[in-house]
């Protein structure tokens, strides 16, 4: 080894990258004079001379430590295999620069008298435990507490609040079981159309609430009254979905002239006006029924025509040709009105009609004839899911209705009796009657599911076409209650007629 090689400082890091940009930035400008062969190379700056790194020319070997005044002796070096303390790592492009130097340092320049900046190591920067080596140079200097260590008296543990201090928002809340935290007070359910579109919802019903709503231009909307909330609940009950797909309601009475057909139209029209599915009323009177007199007929077809042409019915439009639809949406299938017909409407006929209508309608309200022993009544009761028993507020009318319940219970229709709705229909205006209606309601309530009282109405007493808009407010509300009580039965199981139980295997 000649003298020129001995004078060269030993490089402690890997060789510089042999690229054009590395040579240009790290070796200075291209017009710098090259040393002649055999001449001594650049050495460390002389004492008192200019500092290395001024301007763009100076650099230190890559991955080497900056010169320090005191170098450790060989005796202070750790033995091979011994654990070495963490050291600061320098990136492959860091240079030793001074305060006056402008050379690129990879993001962090070295300033005399200040600790070396940390950078990404070109090699593996993590130790065997997966921790960053650069983190180890500072971790020992940072104050930290071991989790669970005892806290000295007078100090506050990290993550806690001093006595008298305020906790950060949303933290440290004391919640009662079942309550929602403050940050969960609002949800998607609170974004209703009434809240976001104050001028789009419907106006309140007639009264001072509507007047206040109009005077303020819709800005002030008074809360609903108890009566309005009750009415809304009744409407929701009347709109109960039909669980079985088709539901049959039989309206019957043992005594004529008590308002049975009127109740059939009032109930069916109310359901049709509130629901979006198809509702039909069928006249199952074996004699000439009067159901078709309660609305303006659109066709002369009757239930007998439907039976004669049953094989031609393939869709709803085919059935619609035999029915008449009222303004409320209720459809009516009239009974035979031809006086020359000698064939009575029997149980087999009703079963065939019910089978056809069950494919195209959700609810079928059947207007039964008076009496319980005719042939058509046997088919009606066999297929009925619930019954509506109509009675007048008189002694003989009440006794006939109660006798009807006795007959049904004695002929294995006890489930229809328990689920029945009794209607006490006033067919005369108010008079000085001595009948205790409260005691009469109590009697039927003990035997049936519900009791509804229909007041006298001048429009219904005419016996002509029934229009819901012509009813008094009390009568319309009574039919709404009846529709709600009947709607409660839509979600129940279908009635199993006597003798229809499956044999045990």
Provide an overview of this structure.
The longest helix has 16 residues, at 395-410. This protein has 16 helices and 8 strands. The chain starts with a helix and ends in an 18-residue tail after the last helix. The protein is of the alpha/beta class and 505 residues long. The chain has helices at residues 3-7, 20-26, 133-139, 193-196, 208-215, 226-238, 260-274, 303-308, 316-320, 347-357, 375-383, 395-410, 414-418, 437-445, 458-461, 473-487, and strands at residues 247-252, 279-283, 324-325, 331-333, 363-367, 386-391, 421-425, 450-454. An 8-stranded mixed sheet has the order 3-4-2-5-1-6-7-8, sandwiched between helices. Strand 3 and strand 4 (331-333) form a beta hairpin.
Task: Describe the secondary-structure layout.
Elements: H1 3-7, H2 20-26, H3 133-139, H4 193-196, H5 208-215, H6 226-238, E1 247-252, H7 260-274, E2 279-283, H8 303-308, H9 316-320, E3 324-325, E4 331-333, H10 347-357, E5 363-367, H11 375-383, E6 386-391, H12 395-410, H13 414-418, E7 421-425, H14 437-445, E8 450-454, H15 458-461, H16 473-487
Parallel strand pairs: 1-5, 1-6, 2-4, 2-5, 6-7, 7-8
Antiparallel strand pairs: 3-4
Helix pairs in contact: 6-16, 7-16, 10-11
| Succession of helices and strands | HHHHHHEHEHHEEHEHEHHEHEHH
Q: Which runs of at least 5 residues are low in confidence (pLDDT < 50)?
A: 1-13, 47-57, 88-109, 134-140, 499-505
Task: Look at the helices and sheets and give the structural class.
Answer: alpha/beta
Q: Strand arrangement, largest sheet? A: 3-4-2-5-1-6-7-8
Q: Please compute the radius of gyration using only Cα atoms.
A: 49 Å
Strand content: 5-15%
The rounded distance between the terminal residues' Cα atoms is 110 Å
Major beta sheet summary: 8 strands, mixed
Q: Give the integer mean of the pLDDT values.
A: 74
Into which percent range does the helicity of residues fall? 25-40%
Helices, by number, come to: 16
Count every beta strand, where a strand is a DSSP E run of 2 or more residues. 8
Q: Using the alpha-carbon principal axes, give the shape.
A: globular
């Amino acid at each position: 080894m000649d003298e020129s090689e001995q004078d060269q400082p030993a490089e402690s890091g890997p060789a510089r990258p042999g690229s054009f940009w590395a040579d240009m930035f790290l070796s200075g400008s291209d017009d710098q004079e090259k040393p002649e062969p055999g001449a001594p190379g650049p050495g460390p700056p002389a004492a008192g001379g200019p500092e290395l790194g001024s301007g763009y020319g100076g650099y230190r070997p890559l991955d080497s430590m900056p010169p320090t005044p005191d170098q450790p002796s060989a005796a202070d070096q750790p033995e091979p295999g011994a654990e070495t303390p963490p050291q600061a790592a320098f990136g492959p492009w860091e240079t030793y620069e001074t305060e006056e130097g402008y050379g690129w340092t990879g993001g962090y320049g070295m300033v005399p008298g200040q600790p070396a900046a940390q950078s990404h190591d070109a090699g593996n920067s993590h130790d065997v435990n997966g921790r960053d080596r650069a983190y180890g140079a500072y971790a020992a200097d940072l104050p930290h507490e071991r989790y669970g260590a005892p806290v000295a008296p007078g100090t506050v543990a990290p993550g806690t609040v001093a006595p008298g201090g305020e906790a950060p928002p949303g933290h440290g809340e004391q919640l009662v079981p079942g309550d929602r935290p403050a940050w969960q007070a609002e949800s998607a359910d609170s974004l209703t159309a009434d809240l976001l579109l104050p001028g789009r919802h419907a106006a309140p019903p007639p009264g001072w609430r509507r007047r206040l709503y109009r005077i303020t231009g819709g800005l002030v909307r008074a809360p609903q009254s108890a009566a309005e909330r009750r009415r809304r609940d009744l409407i929701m009950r009347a709109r109960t979905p039909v669980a079985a797909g088709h539901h049959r309601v039989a309206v019957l009475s043992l005594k004529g002239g008590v308002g049975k057909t009127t109740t059939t139209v009032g109930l069916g029209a109310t359901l049709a006006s509130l629901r979006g599915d198809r509702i039909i009323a069928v006249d199952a009177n074996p004699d000439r029924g009067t159901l078709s007199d309660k609305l303006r007929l659109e066709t002369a077809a009757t239930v007998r025509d439907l039976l004669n042409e049953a094989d031609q019915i393939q869709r709803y439009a085919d059935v619609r040709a035999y029915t008449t639809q009222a303004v409320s949406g209720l459809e009516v299938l009239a009974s035979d009105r031809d006086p020359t017909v000698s064939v009575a409407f029997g149980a087999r006929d009703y079963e065939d009609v019910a089978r056809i209508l069950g494919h195209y309608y959700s609810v079928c309200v059947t207007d039964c004839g008076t009496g319980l022993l005719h042939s058509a009544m046997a088919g009606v009761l066999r297929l009925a899911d619930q019954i509506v028993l109509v009675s007048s507020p008189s002694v003989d009318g009440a006794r006939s209705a109660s006798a009807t319940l006795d007959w049904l219970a004695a002929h294995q229709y006890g489930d229809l009796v328990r689920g029945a709705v009794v209607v006490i229909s006033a067919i005369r205006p108010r008079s000085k009657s001595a009948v205790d209606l409260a005691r009469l309601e109590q009697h039927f309530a003990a035997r049936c599911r519900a009791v509804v009282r229909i007041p006298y109405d001048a429009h219904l007493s005419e016996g002509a076409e029934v229009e819901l808009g012509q009813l008094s407010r009390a009568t319309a509300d009574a039919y709404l209650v009846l529709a709600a009580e009947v709607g409660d039965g839509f979600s129940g199981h279908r009635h199993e007629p006597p003798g229809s139980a499956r044999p045990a295997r």
